[in-house]
Amino acid sequence: MESKTISGAKILLECLSRLGVTDMFGYPGGSVLKIYDELYDFKKIKHYLARHEQGAIHGADGYARSSGKVGVCLATSGPGVTNIVTGIMTAHMDSVPLLAITGQVQTTLLGTDSFQETDIVGITIPITKTNYLITDIRDLPRIIKEAYYLSKTGRPGPVLIDIPKDIQSTEISIDEFEKLFEKDFILEGYDPIYKGHAGQIKRATELIKSSKSPLIISGAGILKSGASDELLIFAEKINCPVTCTFLGLGGFPSNHKLMLGMLGLHGTVASNYATKQADLIIAAGMRFDERVTGNIKEFCPNAKIIHIDIDPAEIDKNIVSNVPIVGDLNNVLNKLNDNLQSLTHEEWIDKINTWKREYPLIIPESNDNSLVPQYVFNKLNTLLKDDTLIATDVGQHQMWTAQFINFNKPNTLISSGGAGTMGFGLPAAIGAQIANPNKNVVLIVGDGSIQMTIQELILLREYNLPIKILIINNSCLGMVRQLQEVFNEKRYSQVDLTYNPDFVKIGEAYDIKSMKLSTKEDLNENLENLLNLNEPVLIEFVVDKNQNVLPMVPSNYSVDKMIGKKGVI
User: What pLDDT, on the 0 to 100 scale, is given for residue 367?
Assistant: First the structure.
């Protein structure tokens, strides 16, 4: 006889499914036992078993970034939930829509230091849009709907729901659940602004018309609002050069004549010089992070600022703007496009093109047939298709990816920007491939960072994910080594990874086709064929450890102090 009641665990799954969730990443444990028991028969959501909770949360993150859907992660209490804290922070810093579902000790034991009890609600207050501890099963349908809505609306971000064991097991009637689910929720004080203020848009229009040397800085907000097409129309209409933040790559075509490349710490010379001489900055969906601005007191000294962002908290936080516009970039850019006629800035464009010609990115010559990393990235750029999803980890390889790979399509870069989380890349690539089964996914990762979540390799074989893993092996923690070279007089403290494992054998141990490429000849003979295989492949590139990511604006300095403009320090 069919049950007429439903448990809290089943309510969770049923609500997620009704909201559109089809995939979930997680790792079981004692405090989520009931949820996993319900999952055993629940066919509407597919669960992907990570090998560590950190892998699960980054998997959900990569799934969300690459698809625009809400990523969902499930973890048990105690060390299970603390293992996902880094992933929640990573999603928070980059505004990724994520639901973290966690198990908790039963409600009668809260506050007693019970086995694996952890105040995850308290821990995650600063790194979530909001979070919930469920103490009544009747709150579950409303809170799940609220959490899902909050995670994806306005400025997206992670939301956590902590569910005690007894709430998971408690049952109510199906009729009562249906009534609770149908009931609307009200979020007092939460009202994202999508349309920009007409008066501010008019002021921005006048500033743009009078500008002689404008510059657009395109941030991740362009991608999150789906405003890439509107940005292209806008930039071409006002004939304005465009630079971007790291997470803004793909928001404007890298191969467009108005594109200057990335801005900031490892940005191009032309981008950074342009900020110095621009008379108007149009900042679109970016937050003036210090890696973009360098010394904030000397950033854009001659420019008026138009700052467009959906989050009012970002306005005037780091840089005071002349014209603040709170709203969705799609709406605001459409309005600006309606208001403006075609403009020209030939003298300004000529100056910028001179910088682009004088200071191109440099590929160092190797004395023999050995590989320098810049050569690898330049070659990759010729082989990867525009719609390839490229995930990276964090380190020098991440910045070379930003510099040398053309991102001509939106949402093709998946990387940890604000948090700079090592160990992000492999599980995020897995999430991206699951969300996009018909797209090519390439992971670019360092020999240091791959080892932080290397256990997730087994998911490639288990779920037949044809991801191409490219390990840039320079036998060191390259970015830290570079900082030590510049700031610590080459005192290379604890960055040497000469004692690395054999990555090819590791790949083969996970039943993944693997190959080591050590010379230009190896690379040119094998790389294209390996990238085209319809199966997971691990490729290790053995490269020169002495190479640095250049140019570089040292931390807290202005662009005047940029080093490595010609490719050497």
Answer: 75
Contact 208, 280 (CB under 8 A): yes
Q: Of the listed 46, 69, 106, 116, which one is catalytic?
A: 116
At 312, is the pLDDT very low, low, confident or very high (cuts 50, 70, 90)? very high
Considering the candidates 24, 89, 286, 479, report the single residue annotated as catalytic: 479
60-116 pLDDT tens trace: 999 999 999 999 999 999 999 999 999 999 999 999 999 999 999 999 999 999 999
State the catalytic residue, choosing from 115, 179, 206, 487.
115
Where is 80: in which H helix or E strand?
A: helix 79-82
User: Can 115 be counted among the known catalytic residues?
Assistant: yes
Is 116 among the catalytic positions?
yes
pLDDT band at 1 (very low <50, low <70, confident <90, very high): low
Q: Is 299 a catalytic residue?
A: no
Q: What is the DSSP string of 472-505?
A: EE-SB-HHHHHHHHHHSTT---S-B--S---HHH
* Predicted model pTM: 0.97
Phi-psi sector, 47: left (phi>0), alpha (psi -120 to 50), beta: beta
Catalytic residue status for 479 = yes
Say which of 10, 34, 145, 165 is annotated catalytic: 165
Q: Per the structure block, which two tokens stand in for 438?
A: 């018909």
pLDDT of residue 379: 97
Element (H, E) at 75: strand 71-75
SS (H, E, C) 120-183: HHHHHHHHCCEEEECCCHHHHHHHHHHHHHHHHCCCCCEEEEEEEHHHHHCEEEHHHHHHHHHC
Structure tokens that stand for 459 in this block: 């998911």
Residue 455 CB-density burial (10 A; 0-12 exposed, 13-18 middle, 19+ buried): middle
Contact 96, 435 (CB under 8 A): no
Reduce the DSSP state of residue 506 to 3 states and report it: helix
Is 165 assigned a catalytic role? yes
Choose the catalytic residue: 53, 117, 230, 456: 53
pLDDT band at 555 (very low <50, low <70, confident <90, very high): confident
Q: Which of 96, 89, 565, 556 is nearest to 292 (CA)?
A: 556
Considering only CA atoms, which of 407, 102, 433 is closest in space to residue 251?
Answer: 407
Say what the pLDDT of residue 167 is.
98
pLDDT one-digit tens code per residue, 119-160? 999 999 999 999 999 999 999 999 999 999 999 999 999 999
